[in-house]
Every structure is written in structure tokens, then in C-alpha cells.
Amino acid sequence: MLKxxxxxxxxxxxxxxxxxxxxxxxxxxYLTTREETxxxxxxxxxxxxxFDRRMDEQGQRIExxxxxxxxxxxxxxxxxxxxxxLQRQVMGLGARWGLMNEEAxxxxxxxxxxxxxxxxxxxxxxxxxxxxxxxxPSDIELDAIIRDGLHVLVEIKSAxxxxxxxxxxxxxxxxxxxxGCKPQRRLIxxxxxxxxAREAAKRLNVEVCExxxxxxL
Length: 217
Prior knowledge:
Blueprint: H1 2-15, H2 17-27, H3 34-112, E1 119-128, E2 138-147, E3 150-156, H4 162-179, E4 185-190, H5 195-203, E5 207-210
Helix pairs in contact: 1-2, 4-5
């Protein structure tokens, strides 16, 4: 019967309007009309257009954010470079300030004892070709105050660390070895001496003086 229906149905649909109408009525419950199909296609096209528009907007936002990030990165780089330059300037000024104050103190000590011929203020210089102090050839300098055979070695620094104390003690030992004069006192004078420097000075028999008051002789 199904085979017969398949062979006769097309012919009946073409020749019998009533049958054709009944079939269309039944199928209309399951199939969309042209208008409905057109409406669905239009809605799909609109959805695609909205999607494309949103993707374009999102892409523009991402591009803008990337541009702003590049600008911020450039600003940070410029600020970092400016900060590094400022730090170098500050460090340079600090170093020059320290050197100027050290030299000013030396001049003050010389002036203080200028009317005492028995007191000499000297800056001892020695070329350590054997590298005894640093392990390689270097120029060594020490401030020495000498009175009646009494040698007081003085290190004047704007700030003192434990390494500075150790270095000064080794220079004092080298001074004694080279000159044959054992210093009676070894002084470090500075406006700032940290805690580890104090401990090192205590262990190495180095006196520390915070301030700029010259030693009494």
C-alpha cells in the first residue's frame, strides 16, 4: 500500500486541488511558511550583524587598552630613568659633600694646632706595591697627628660601616709596619657610625667619635 501511495500521491497532488490542499494543510502544522522562513532568516542576519558589531567594538576597546598600556609603560620607563638620574645626582652630591667636609675637618685640625710647634698634622701617603692591604697595588692615605713621638691615626669619613673600620685597622697596622711607629690611638671620626661598625671597632681596638671635635693631645 505504501508503494502504491508513493506512486500515486505526486499525480494526485498535481491533478486534484482538494487533495493538494489537504496535504498542505497537514504539512503546515510542521513546516514554516515563506513569510516565517524569511522572518527567521532576517532575524539570523540581524543577530550576525549585532555579533559582528560587538566584536568590532570589543576589538577597538582592546586596541585602545593596548595603546594606553603602551603609553603607561613609556611613562613608567621615563619616570624610572628620571629617578635613576636623580639618584645618581643625589649620590654624587652626597659623595662631594662628604669629601668637602672631610677636607674641611683636616684643615680645621691643622689650624687648631698651628700655634703648637710640637704638634704635627700630616697626611701619610704610601704606595702599597706589594698589595698588602687590598691584595693588589694601591695608594694608601692616612691622617696622622704626631706630638712628642705620640702617633694618633685619624680616619675622617662622612659615614662609617664595619668594612670601613676593618680597612682603617689594616691601614693602621701597615702604617706601623712601614714607619716603625706604633700608633698609640686609632680614631675614626664621623657624624654617622652604624651598629656593626661600633662592634667591629670594639673588637679591633679602634676608637669611634661621632661628631667633628678634634682629639685632645
